[in-house]
Amino acid sequence: MTTAHMLIVDDELSVLTALQRSLRLRYGRRLAVETQLDAGHALKRVEVQDFDVVISDLRMPAMDGLTFLSGVARLRPHSVRMVLTGSADFETAQRAINDTGVFRYLCKPWDDEEMTTHIDAALAHARLLREQRSHAQAWQDQVNAISPQELERRRLEEMEPGITRVEWGAHGEVLMPPLTASPNIK
What we know:
Number of helices: 6
CATH superfamily: Response regulator
Number of strands: 7
CATH class: Alpha Beta
Distance between the termini: 67 Å
Helix content: 40-55%
Shape: elongated
CATH topology: Rossmann fold
Largest sheet: 5 strands, parallel
Number of domains: 1
Structural class: alpha/beta
Strand content: 15-25%
């Protein structure tokens, strides 16, 4: 069982405590939840720790949520970012989605079932992104391990199957495949 990592940033301790309690009941040890009251401290945490999902309040005193999530996007572009806010402002929601790549925009107060549905979706999205990165890295490792000649041979073989397969005789001669009689030839 892989443990997912989540960071929640909000300047209200009661919100952090309620979310943490709700998530612990729902996910148990499958989700490691870290909380921060200060966006600046949270950004420093993101520099050293990889988080699958980052949830931020929109309105905070020292640094607003969009600035914080922009920093997260710059440092950890693969982290799934979500906004949790007390104001349902469509223009701000649109900016959050367009400017910082926010996955979901959630409003306070939240319904626990609805919240976990959104978090399930965010965790699934984070898992998909992790798998894509893993496949891309494996492909890159494979490409790096293959010589340019081998890459060219594979390209030619894809274009014309059999073109790069040559059988050599004992004295260095090219051996031709045996001629088989076609059923139409008598």
